[in-house]
Amino acid sequence: MFFLRAVRTKTRLAVLVLGLMAGWVLGQEQSLPASEVGASAGQSHEGTRQWRLPLAVQTPPVGTSHEEMLAYLTTLGERCPEIELEIAGRSVAGREIPVLYLPPRSRWRAEAATVMVFAQQHGDEPSGKEALLMLLDEFCAEPEAWPFPHLNLVLVPSVNPDGGEAHRRRNDRQVDLNRNHAILTEPETRLLRMLFNRYAPQVTLDVHEYGLRSWLRQGLLKDLGEQFDCVSNPAIPAVLLEFARERLLWPTIERARERGVNAHRYLVTQDDPALPVRHSTTDIDDGRNGFGIDCTLSFILEGPNGLWRGDRIWERAKGQLAFVESFLAVCEANHEEIVRVVTKAREERA
Fold first, then answer.
1. DSSP letters of 42-90?
2. What angle do CA 188, 178, 260 make, to 5 degrees?
3. Phi/psi class of residue 207: alpha, beta or left (left: φ > 0; alpha: ψ in -120 to 50)?
């Protein structure tokens, strides 16, 4: 069952005022306690600080810039031998696009499932990037406790760094990257396709955020929690559609709910909440079905955006992180079957 919660006020002005007040309060609360800063500060086992998660040292957290992300990942790459950093390409404006491999590619296991997770195709949706930086921070802080030993991970925290720096949906040529996976005119989507062709991941996850403001005219703010969906194009083999839905999608949602996440299957709403909602598109020009059409178990995650840049960014990133970790845990538990079912589907399609 999908529940949709909203808060109604008497006027749009009241909604905006309440939103501003709530955001200010949350911003103050996001000044992290010392215990949480320590846990996110990248301390070695001897207690000597080796790196600092950028979002964890901001007061209040407002978001990690591209320069801060690159500096942080460079430090991790130098001091955490359990990950591998590659600058795999550049954006339209020439910004570097980093890719992380966990574990390093030389230690990938042939029997493991390969999972590619990418975030911030839309530059004004930064919480997925922050969540992947948090995931890397957790891993490097305690690599021996990593709970996903049967997964080879390819992580792209920020596909659209130009849009990210401008807090803009589209890239520097004003192209929506999540509508570019069929024609591949942009260097950012070509980079993702290059990674896919090179490593043939059995699973992909595209991390997004949805807007809160489309219902403000009705005096409403959306509260849809973390929304999740799988491949849906009818040209994708039925065995993959069913496996994605029954073995990965619903178990991930249930696991996330066990962690206290408000999680549901993804539904697309319209500007008027009284109008019907629908499941996500079946088009193959997006980052889900675009890879799914190549016999891949591909997924999309949509978390709540803020009312303004940096609004509740720590809370938003933590929600995305909890869901991504729930998803990876389900992939870990099903890694053998994932490899088997995808390999068979690709062989039959060839």
1. -B-TTS-B----GGGGSSS-----HHHHHHHHHHHHHH-TTSEEEEEEE
2. 110
3. beta
Distance CA 316, CA 320 (A): 6
Beta strands in 112-257 (DSSP E): 113-119, 151-156, 203-210, 220-223, 226-230
What gap in Å lies between CA 224 and CA 263, rounded to an integer? 8
- CB contact set of 211 (below 8 Å; sequence gap of 6+): 222, 305
Copy the structure tokens of residue 345: 């589907």
Q: Express each pLDDT in 177-200 by its tens digit.
A: 999 999 999 999 999 999 999 999
Place of tokens 């006020």: 9
pTM of the predicted model as reported, rounded to 2 decimal places: 0.89
| Coil, helix or strand at residue 86 | strand
Q: Quick: pLDDT tens for 41-98.
A: 554 333 444 689 999 999 999 999 999 999 999 999 999 999 999 999 999 999 999 9
Lookup: tokens for 1: 């069952």
